[in-house]
Amino acid sequence: MRILLVEDTTDVADAIVAHLLRLGHTVDWEANGRKAANMVTDERYDLIILDVMLPELDGYALLKRIRSVPLNTQVLMLTACAEIEERVNALDTGADDYLTKPFDFRELEARIRVLLRRCGGDSTNLLKCANLTLDRKSRTAKVNDVPLDLTRREITLLEIIISHPGRIFGKDELIDKLFTIDDNPSANSVEQYIARLRKKLSHAQFEIRTLRGLGYQVVLS
Hints:
Layout (H helix, E strand, L loop, with lengths): L1 E5 L3 H13 L3 E5 L2 H5 L9 E5 L7 H10 L5 E6 L4 H10 L3 E4 L4 H16 L5 E4 L2 E4 L4 E4 L2 E2 L4 H11 L5 E2 L1 H8 L8 H14 L5 E6 L3 E6 L1
Parallel strand pairs: 1-2, 1-3, 3-4, 4-5
Antiparallel strand pairs: 6-7, 7-8, 8-9, 10-12, 11-12
Helix pairs in contact: 6-8, 7-8
């Protein structure tokens, strides 16, 4: 899924971004709170990971702006302060979860999975569509229990479109979900990934249908 990380400590941000990319997420990073505020005016992001101490606009002020729009985007707050008042303040201001630094990346992963499941109304990490099962934790997919050889971005695209069978996903929406602001993708990029998925999903009991001028739709066989 597409994640915005707002963190001004470069080495911490680099480590988080690298880790999330390995998991298959699309990640944008911004160190300045005021600049980040200009990036969250719509629901482009599925999750915002937000540090408290930021230049120009701190995490609490930015969180208030996010919730005043309002956006349904999930927000995970990060802070070095372990005081209970700090955690309560973050949750009362509108954060969906809270993680204290330093943290284990396994806990960060787990909390992200919970928040993204909450977005989709799912209770487990297993996402099923007909005879296909996608495991959000291991970032793997199987058709009839046979593993599929999918790239990181193909897994992400598959996760997006099978989360809502029947829903039409426009190319612009998929570009926003799959690519960062630095990637410079085109509509042709989405077409290529869809074409690759179709070949690898030849035994799946659903099809990815193209609706000319509208986008793509998962239709059960």
